[in-house]
Every structure is written in structure tokens, then in C-alpha cells.
Specification:
homodimer
Amino acid sequence: METSWVESANDGLTDFPLQNLPLGIFSTADLDRRIGVAIGDYVLDLRGCFEQGLLGSPSAALQKAYTSHTLNILMSAGRKAAKPLRARMKEMLRAEAASDLCDEVGKLLHSSSEVTMHLPADIGDYTDFYASLYHATNVGKLFRPDNPLLPNYKYVPIGYHGRASSIVLSGAQVKRPRGQTKAPDAEHPVFGASRLLDYELEAGFFISEGNQLGTGIPIDKAEDHIFGLCLVNDWSARDIQAWEYQPLGPFLAKNFATTISPWVVTMEALEPFRVPAFERSADDPQTLPYLDSANNSQQGGIDLTLEVWLSSQRMREAKLDPVRLSKGNARDLYWTPAQMLTHHASNGCNLRPGDLLASGTVSGPSKESVGCLLEMTRRGAEPIELPGGEQRRFLEDGDEIILRGYCQREGYPRIGFGECRGTIIPAS
Amino acid sequence: METSWVESANDGLTDFPLQNLPLGIFSTADLDRRIGVAIGDYVLDLRGCFEQGLLGSPSAALQKAYTSHTLNILMSAGRKAAKPLRARMKEMLRAEAASDLCDEVGKLLHSSSEVTMHLPADIGDYTDFYASLYHATNVGKLFRPDNPLLPNYKYVPIGYHGRASSIVLSGAQVKRPRGQTKAPDAEHPVFGASRLLDYELEAGFFISEGNQLGTGIPIDKAEDHIFGLCLVNDWSARDIQAWEYQPLGPFLAKNFATTISPWVVTMEALEPFRVPAFERSADDPQTLPYLDSANNSQQGGIDLTLEVWLSSQRMREAKLDPVRLSKGNARDLYWTPAQMLTHHASNGCNLRPGDLLASGTVSGPSKESVGCLLEMTRRGAEPIELPGGEQRRFLEDGDEIILRGYCQREGYPRIGFGECRGTIIPAS
């Protein structure tokens, strides 16, 4: 396997080996917001690379992309622009690079501990799907024990529009929302702090090139419009959700905050981890033709492990390490990213560069692989035990949730996503 | 009543008398996008006014607002900035203005027929409410005859996130969407052009100053955050909606296009038309305290007449005038704009300048005042007759829908909203 002259990229533990090269937006005490590339324990200043002439003579559009404060312009240039950029990054960072090139590039590296990360893109619209059959079934069982899955589920990649303004970066504190809730036996609802606060473990993907309003995107072209992936925590107030969601879906139960990880792992980096789409059983209906293709069935999935870790305030005070609550995999999603995207644009809805689509809670078949507390504790009926003796039905103030994601296989470096962290602070 | 030296502003028929002065974004063959003010049959170039020194010596922030390509910066400056600007506009345009001022201002007027209008703001997030009790009841009856209104309705201003990217300006053609639909007796859904295409008559309002993530907006401060209103047509594909909307709400049934009118009628212009909020009956539950205030009850409503007109292709060919399908009033909404806004931010969700909130379909108690065909034809069961002999259950290709809105009362000039037009073109 190719290695890098940046030694921390080769330790077998890093999320960011030479084969990953995810993109993000960083600043330092001296540099304003700009595109960076993660490599081991460092961030490479892409704008600096361009300004030092290390990226050749890019087109005017790419010059604008390389010097921008967000990834939107680079995203709009599409994967055809991302691929040669990736190749050039590899040339500059691989162990075999000439020593004068290493010297030049080395001056443009910043220690990860000294940079501040920012949202990778101006997110115009944010859409959240519901692509895990296990999640939909588990949640459905809590509400409709005899009929957990609605009739449309295996035909329609169900999704809804989320809130773009309240998407925050990993590390931001999340204030417990207030809202209307109504106990089943109460006559009236009350307004106050949510008591059933939850996380949702999700994978998100950013749109690269968009589509014109009124034109769809065929399933076999869908991935041309996906720039890369990040981790998403779709914080959810279950008590607010239960009372408000009929008939128009979740609203204030979700839009108080959504946390994403800072690094966008490109589709190119994920190529070695593509797997068949979720296998349909003989009882499952035929996928409608606009969502179906041999290519999608054969390699539309992504073998991406996703984990949830929790650290309570008391655990931190007692110097206890975070505890892993669950471990799932994006390959367990019933719908692939391509299917979600093609469905989204199938009515002519225009997607724009930098738009974020998320998978919905990623849950697997076992209790150890469910992506939210609602499922794990069966709406609080079966609390979980934390190291140090605490119990959790839902999140308490001071709880920190850490999402991690990585692709791993024998003989290939780990392609990691970094972390997506958020700590709950008390309601106003 | 004060009149203007722009004579077409005084004819009693115009939407844009001196008392209105709505703001929008226009361009001409020679001028790029900029803020304009509608007066009679003309548009006044606000940027030009600033550049000619007619707006005094504004702050740096206001200079940026006046020379911007959208209204967002002016909106962010809040109503405290909009009020003196309005006063100055009146000074410049009133009949009593000095003749040299009229000469200067006159050079900055453009005939409405020679300008191109654009979206008034970069709309970050678009939220659609469901604030008409009549609409919710009528639609509920079609689905649940015995229990039309859900238990949360009179407590929660129900809303959901719509799509910002597909908001288009009045005049844009609207392509009939394709999507999954399933006939009640069919075994499987099919993918194809929607056959139950509908309009929804709504009032929209733009956010002025925003709020920080994590902080709410008290009900008596809510209107400080509302810049002004426009007309909204929330096009809806009823067959797609029926199949997709459980459990997360409408998605592709709505996000293929939303049409808005170009002029933003400010809250200042609407002041003379403020009315009490929708009167609660003795059986209605007490409004929760965070949504309740004496001020809101006494004058939280707006006496705004809203009309839907239709012109079919055949009607146009036969030189028949558009026909009015319905006439409703925003005062019939169960929830006021202030209540919708305060509810939206009550969980800490951050609203940003230029965000658009819409009321949901405005329907009144009579069949003549319902704001969509779903209600008017009872889901197609009772088609309506058009001039020339056609029938309509839902919209046909070539149908043009024109929304109009105005505030009117004895002894005061009509405050109009202009038009919100869209014509259906065939599916791909």
C-alpha cells in the first residue's frame, strides 16, 4: 500500500491515510477560512498549494473554487474536477514525492490541533431520509405493533425536508429544546424542556453538480452528483415529535440542531468499499424501474461502519472513557445514496451544490446495531447501563454523543470520517 | 388621503399607492439587479436614490443594504431601518414634494412594463404552516370523516419545512411533476405524471432580524422579526402526496415548485388593516401562554383578501377572461403570523433574514372561500365549471393560476400585493 511522507498518515490507526484525503474548511490564528485536506495529524492548506503554484494552472472556475471559503464551488465543478485534484494531492503527499516538493508542501501543513474547523459548505437545503428498514420497523413497532411498516416503505425512499439554518459543526454544544409535549393521560399539552432527548446516527452526503429545476437525474448518473460523505447526528426530541408530527411530519422535534462532522470523505476514497445494495427478499416488491439498475444493485451500497459513543458528565468527572452504545453499518440501508438522490430529483426538484442529504437513522438487525435510544431502550422501557452505574432512557444534560465512522478491510488502510461530537446543555 | 405626483398611484385601482411602497428586486436592460419600490405603474430605483444622495448619509450597513442584489441585508437591519426608509420614500413621492426633488426622483423611475423582477431574497429556509382551521378541517374530512381535526391542531401551529431551492418567481412556468402514485385498488404504485395537480393559496412572510440558535422569540416581540408579506402558491400533487406522506409528511408532492409574488408588502403598509386574531369559541382550548398575548389577540390578524383566478389554454384561445375560483381572507387563519413565528423559534430554532414562512392554504368557511381544488371539488368528486364549458377536478396542462391579494377599506387606498402567476406545462 502506498504510504505518505507525513508519518502520522501511516500508523494504521489514523482516520486520514494517503488513501483518504477528505476535504474540509479550516482556519488558523493567521489564516482565514479556506479548504484543507486531512492527512494524518495534519491539515494541508489547499489554497496555499494553489497560491504556491503547486496545482498547475487551473481554470478560472477552479481558481475560484480553490480560494473559496466553502466547498460549494468545488462541489459545483463536479467529480470530474475532484478526481484530478485528488490525484495531484496524492502526488504531493506520497512517500515517493521529491524532497523539494515535500519541503514546499510541508510549509503548508498545519497541525490538526491548531486549526479551527468550520462547516464544509453553505448548505442550501437539507433533506433527511428514512432509509433503514430496521429503523423504520423498530420505530413502527413502538407505535403500531401489528403493522410496523407502512405500505409505501419498500416502494418510496421516504424523506422530508430538514432545517438548514440549525446545522452545526461537531463540537458545538446543543441546548436541550423546549416545546409542547402531552403525556398520553394528560388532558392538555404543556410547554417546557424536552425530557425525551435522543440522537440519531446517520450518514450524510453532499451534492456536487446540481440539476435544473424540472429535470430528473437517472439512477445510473446519480453518483456523478454526489461529492462525498460525512457523519450526521439528527438530534431528536421524542416527546415533542410524538405530539406534533401528525399530519405534516417532524418539525420542532428536529430543527433545534443537527450536528455534522467537518471532513467530507469523497466518493473516490470510498470506491474500494462499495458493496451490493441491501438484498431484497423474495417477498419484497420489485423496485420501480426509475430506482433500479444493475449497477446500483451490484455496488450501490457502502460498507461504512458507524458507531455511537456516549460520555456522561459523571463519567468524565470519574475519568471513565466514553462507552460505545452501538455499531451499525450503512450497507444495511434499504435504499442506496443513488436511489435517495434519484428519487429526490424524480419530480424535477432541483438539487444544488452543497445541499446535504442524510440517510436517516442507520440501524441494523441486532440491538447492538440500532442508531438511536428510542430503539435501544424501547422508548425508555429498557434503560441501558453506563460505566459508573448510571442508567439512560434518553439523554441527560452533560451527555456527550460522539459518532464515528470508518471503512476497513484486510490489506487496505482505514478510511475514517473523524468524529461528530455534541454535548447537551440545559434548556433555557 | 395623501397622494403622489406619480399619477398612476392615485387612480384608486392600482395595487401600489403612496401608502403601500412595497420592496422588490428588479433589473432592466441597462441596470443589474437592485432594490426597487413599486409606485403606481412605476418602479423606483432605490440604489439609484442612494447613489444620487437622496437618502442622506446612511450607515455603512445600510449603504450595503441599499446597493445589494437582494433584500436580505435590508431585512437583517430590521424594521427599525425599514421605517425611516419608508418615511423618506413617502417624502420623495408625495404630491407635495418640491419640484426639483420630483425631477431628480423622476429620473429614477422605470415603467413597470420595462423591468424584470427577481426573487426578493435569497431564501435560506422555507417553512410552510397549516394555519387555516377551515382548510385543516376540510382536508381532514376527506380522509377521516368522523374525526377531521387532529387533537394537536388547536394547540400547535402545525408546520413543516419546505424546499427553498424550488421557490420561483411569479411568471415562471411550472412543469407537471412525475412521481409515484398508487390507486386505492391497485396492487402496486406506478411512476408517471401526476394527475391530481393542485394550487394552494397562501400568504407568506419574510423574516427581518433573525434570532440566535438556542434562543426563542417572545410573542410580543414576534412582529419585530417580520419584514413583510407576499403571495405564495404552494403547488401540490395530491396523488403523490397521498402515497408518500406517511409518516414524515409531504415531500416530492410539494417541492417541485413554489411560486411567490415579487413585491414584499411591509408590515408598516399593513398597519391600518390589523384586526383581532381568529376568535376562539368557548369549546376551544386555552392557547398555551407562550403563544398568547393580549396584543396578539387584539390585533395579531391581518384583514387581507386573497383570490384565486384561473385561465385555461382554451379560455385564452377563446379570448375569455380569467375566472375567479375563490376569495378568502387571511384573517380567517386560526394562527397569526406572530404565533407561527414564535412557535417556530420556541425550541431555539434560528430564523435568518430572508427566510420565508408561509401560512398554509387560506380557506374560509364557505365553498367560495376555499384555497385549493382538493377542497373545492372534494377531491375531484364535484368538478367545477369554467367559462367556455370546460370542467376542472384538478389542474390541466396550460392552466394558468393567478393569485391576487389586497387590503381594502372605506376611505383608504387599496394596498395590493400584485400578482402571483404560474402556468402548468406538460410533464417531461
